[in-house]
Amino acid sequence: MNDKPPQPEQPEDILKNPPERPLECSECRRVIRVRYTEVIGNTCNSLSMCSECPELEKRLQGTKGTQSSLPADGATGLACGNCGTTLEAIRIGTLVGCSTCYEVFESVIIDELQRAQSIPSRLISGKRSQILHMGRSPGEAKEMSISVRLVALNEALNETLAKEDYEQAALLRDQIRDLTEKKGSENVQ
Amino acid sequence: MSNNDLAGEIAKLGTPWNENENPIWIATSLSLQRNIEKFKFPGKMGLDRRQQVVALASGELIEKSGLDKPILFKSEEISPLDKEYLMEHFLSMQSFLHAHGGEGFLIDSTGLFLTTFNIDSHVHFTLIDTQNELEKAWNRLIKIEVSLGDALGYAFSPKFGFLTPDPHQCGTAFTATAFLQLSALAQIGELEATIKKLQDEQLVITGIQGSPTEIIGDIIVLQNNYTLGITEENILSSIRSAATKLQVQENAARLRLREQEKPEIKDHVSRAVGVLIHSYQVETIEALNAISLVKLGADLGWIKGITTPELNQLFFSCRRAHLLGHLSGAVNPEELPHKRAEHIHKALQQVTLTI
User: Fold this and answer.
1) Domain B1-19+27-171 falls in which CATH fold?
2) CB within 8 Å: A120 and B163
3) By the 8 A CB rule, do B62 and B110 touch?
4) Is A113 helix (H, G, I), strand (E, B) or coil?
5) Contact (CB<8Å) B233/A8
6) Are B78 and B3 in contact (CB under 8 A)?
7) Cα–Cα distance between A104 and A108 in angstroms, integer?
8) Above 50 in pLDDT, residue A70?
């Protein structure tokens, strides 16, 4: 093991010696995130752009008549400027390569999550701009209390009572009572 | 450390199953995937970068997370058998056998905690709970997660949450998996209907090897379907709620079996004892199915001479890697079913049928 902790990889390192690639978006001068390649006939044009670049949006959406110049199978040549993962690879189910891919391929990822029903149905028809994450943020150390267990036991108790299984219901009630007492004594302390 | 020492350390892992008195809810595993902000994901990193991640993350965990005697195993330094042992011990649904250079495993002395490095995400924490104390286990897991995150910073976006190479696992990047042994429901033919009734978009229900149709040892596995668009608390609560309902129904089925005369089920249990005590060789699946019936028989008072924790322990120790780890010296694969039978005979030598 090295004595010195290794330095984390910086996005700037990757972009230090880019082959004929400018460090700023060709259109709006922000940090580049996307390498866009367009093949028209025998000519191949490459552009480097930021992920929010309006020019990128135009080319992907095919406005201003650019749609006809894109390949018919939808392979746009879009690639992540940080790790090189391509849109085509994402579409065939390859794993994403880095955090930047989530920005670059945001709409493709959302489509895929919706198609595969990997998000709750209440979120599927929501706006594309909506926040999907509902859990913790980094550094949040919120502890869970035994209330979660009490809720589950109460749910099970209600179902058991509905089935008129009084023996199981009594067992559940005992567990609920023990937990409630435990919770009470924790609160007192 | 030599390879033998490493294997020895893995084989010395604490055995939480020894203390598990619960005949139905065997265990729950809680797992969190995390990736370090400044690095590309493992699939896009070269060997040297992956090794840096292992060194960096394991160093922080060993020094600052408060783990009890943590030990790091680099993947290239341990045998395929040791990887299989870890997979069995931590009830992993994912195989570690393909783990190679630049990947690693970190365990602590409790035998309940495992971190893998670069197998899927940079860091994948797993904590096993065998005492039905999921909230306590979560609180312990999150302390470890926060200590590493404070030092290295996790890849996170407000929209997608904690970022993972597989977008289907981002968000909380949290998976809770409950393992329940529903032998009575299986025996009275109510297992399928019970599972069907429990089905919910938030849950995935499978067998121990991940197949929804192949149920081995009557073990049903409940896992959250979503990691994104839901809170950690909701995930844990839905797993707890479903597992509690199944446990109640299994208890009710056991009670019915105790009260009613069911000769065919007594016969199944007796035959299972016969298979385990008298067979000359026995394969894993046959053994797991028979142990499940013996556990049921013991719980119903039809079998004496063995306890639930001992049977839970046997359930693990007769699986391939555990068995090989337990046997000293090289064993020919063809001999393994016989060695398994011998191991089970020894464990069940005090067992007697009372029906």
Assistant:
1) Creatine Kinase; Chain A, domain 2 (3.30.590)
2) no
3) no
4) helix
5) no
6) yes
7) 9
8) no
pLDDT(A55) > 90: no
The answer to whether the CB of B97 falls within 8 A of the CB of B84 is yes
Task: Return the amino acid letter for A106.
Answer: E
Whether B156 and B136 have beta carbons less than 8 Å apart is answered as no
Chain B interface mutation, best of A82, A129, A132, A142, highest count of B Cβ atoms under 10 Å: A132
| Residues B310, B315: Cα–Cα separation, whole Å | 9
Crossing angle for the helix pair B232-259 and B191-198, nearest 10 degrees? 150
What is the arithmetic mean of pLDDT over A35-64?
69
B301: left (phi over 0), alpha (psi -120 to 50) or beta: left
Summary count for chain A: helices (H), strands (E): 8, 3
Sign of the CA dihedral with B230 first, then B236, B241, and B243 last:
positive
Residues facing B162 on adjacent strands? B156, B171
C-alpha B217/C-alpha A99 separation (Å) is 41
- Residue B207, classified by CB atoms within 10 Å of its CB into exposed (0-12), middle (13-18) or buried (19+), is middle
Contact predicate B167/B158, CB 8 Å: no
Other Cβ atoms less than 10 A from the Cβ of B157: the count is: 16
Residues 6+ apart with CB under 8 A from B9: B1, B71, B73, B107
Among A83, A137, A155, the residue with its CB nearest the CB of B40 is A83
pLDDT of residue B258: 92
The dihedral built from the CA positions of residue A87, A91, A92 and A94, taken in this order, carries a sign that is positive
**Which pTM value belongs to this model?**
0.82
- State pLDDT tens for residues B41-89: 999 999 999 999 999 999 999 998 889 889 999 998 888 888 998 999 8
* B160 chain-A contacts, CB cut-off 8 A: 102, 109, 132-133
Tell me the range of A76-85, B192-201, B225-234 where mean pLDDT is highest.
B225-234
- Domain locations in chain B? 1-19+27-171, 174-260, 263-353
Interface predicted TM-score (ipTM) over 0.90: no
